[in-house]
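Thread: Newbie trying to understand structure tokens

Hi all, I'm a second-year student working on a class project, and my supervisor (Dr. K.) asked me to get a predicted structure for one chain before our next meeting. I've only ever worked with sequences, so writing a 3D structure as a token string is new to me. If someone could post the tokens and maybe explain what I'm looking at, I'd be very grateful. Here's the chain:
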Amino acid sequence: MPDQAGLEAIAQELRAADASSVLGTTFDRGRAEVQIDPAKNVAVIELLREKGFTFLASLHGVDYYPEEPRLGVVYELLDMTAIDRISVKARVSIDDPKIATVTKIWPGADFPERELYDMFGVVFEGHDDLRRILMPEDYEGFPQRRDFPVGGEPVLFTYNETDQYGKDR
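---
Reply by user tm_fold:
Sure, no problem. This is what the structure looks like when written as tokens:
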């Protein structure tokens, strides 16, 4: 992990490339995090990749209900040579939950972006195959949002049902 000074140096480099890209930094319990403008996510990610953070370890979502902007997209990046980790967080509004895809930089972001779309409703603009990955295509709602009703709606996955002899029903 970059220490506090290392995190500020990284944030300063990002600001030098685009002054409005970094909204803030947090260093807590050894965890370095940079909060970015969601409209600048691709530029920030590319710059961090050039800086050595070449491995996308995780891409996940957070719902900050009732705060706005409510939905968080968090990229966990690793620098495998310096053994450093940094979190990059962008928050998008529930009214317009859009952010650019990073699948051109990391093809492995394909399924995590689809999962965020499926569970939180975050739309990754430019994604080649943005559709549900866990829930049926006709499912309504986003189960990981905090305002989703507890118990939700029963889901029937009938496309793969067979009878006792292995024949399709």
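A couple of things are worth pointing out once you decode it. The beta strands are 22-28, 31-36, 55-63, 71-79, 84-92, 98-100, 123-125. The chain is about 20% helix and 25% strand. Feel free to ask follow-ups in this thread.
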